Amino acid sequence: MAAHLLRRELPEIRITESHPKALLWLLHVARIKRPVVEICIGHLVDFIESESPRLSDHERDAALGAVAALAMINKRSGWRDLYREEKNAFTPVSPVEYWMPVEIAT
Fold first, then answer.
1. What is the pLDDT of residues 92-102, one digit of tens each?
2. pLDDT tier at 103, thresholds 50, 70, 90
3. Contact criterion met (CB below 8 Å) for 7 and 27
4. Of the four, 9, 45, 72, 100, which is 20 to 30 A from 64 by CA?
């Protein structure tokens, strides 16, 4: 709904979808020995600055959405718009982007 309202007011705005839990794995923050449920803001210091030692899962996921949006704006190295590669994706608020890290070094 927010994307629909934004698009109506600002037709040229760029919007990226994010999948925060997948981002945690692709960024190598989540691991076998550190599942997503154990990840707090302190584990994200390479991506996010926060004065709060603990954020809710929703706040953490919103911050990860902001990381994806910044990657979209900066065309961050190692990230790409997966939506451009999908031919049959359903998008109720087109155009959208889906920036994800795909070439993260281990």
1. 777 888 899 98
2. low
3. no
4. 9
* Domain membership flag for residue 71: yes
Sheet strands (E) in 38-105: 79-81, 99-101
Q: Is residue 2 part of a domain?
A: no
In a domain, 6, yes or no: no
Distance CA 17, CA 2 (A): 12
**Taking 70 as the threshold, does the pLDDT of residue 18 lie above it?**
yes
List C-alpha distances in Å: 54 to 26, 38, 45, 68, 69. Answer: 22, 11, 12, 21, 22
79-81 and 99-101 strand pairing: antiparallel
Q: What range defines the domain where residue 63 resides?
A: 22-101
